[in-house]
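lol so apparently i was supposed to do this last week
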Amino acid sequence: MDRPTIIAGNWKHNPDRNLGESLWREVAAGTMSRIPAGEHNPPVKVVIFPPTPWLGWLVSREGLECLGNGFPESAVLEIGMQEISDRPVGAYTGEVGAELAHQFGARWTLVGHSERRIHFGETDEDVARRLTAAVDHGLCPLLCIGETSEERDAGRTFEVVSHQLEVGLSRFDKKHEYAIAYEPVWAIGTGRTATVEQVEDVHQHLRELLQKKIGSASDGIPILYGGSVKPDNARDLLGLDVVDGALVGGASLKAASFLEILDAGIATA
Ligand code: PEP
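anyway here it is w/ phosphoenolpyruvate bound
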């Protein structure tokens, strides 16, 4: 089964008010000029995960105008949350949940990013609850999993990612739609990219796990790689049959480098 190639940009806690607008304008224009608009199931799609304050602007009239006539019909360029609450709408000060995010234009959410696990103590159980909250309100979750360097050195990579996947998906059944990002913690924001062999091994393992877990329903679930993806390594990584896209942090903050990675995704799709 053909899965779309997804090139995702995680802006993290960047960019500021001035930079974000020009970044979006360039990314939107560059995406729309590369991928025909109006396709409901495009072979390559772009998802941007901005910080929450940007969400409203990106889907405002001004933000949408940057897509030319590619919006709203097209699924070529979509927006996601970096994090969602697992709480319902109500008296939960500081929270933003899937229901509100969806109303304001989000179609995706990251869940279980290692920075959330490390800095904010998110557990696999939290991840499982957030995944359910996402799909209950129409967001497609991108579940992030990956081992630390100590875990890799101890030969525990498969064990760790299998556990994260197993517990993370424990509240799901076959019909749920989601995507997975394999992101070795030691490769995120460090400039150290996993080798093609390391990526291939883990992705193959994850694909087999999904197949065992949910059978042919797993064929439609994209598995992305994330961890210091840059223009100069994107083609090798995206060229692997078992890699269905990239989750890009640092290199997504410069339109030119993000669009070069998108070009690699288009060339290898
Ligand atoms: C990420 O934030 O998910 C990520 C992979 O970051 P970077 O590309 O900077 O390593």
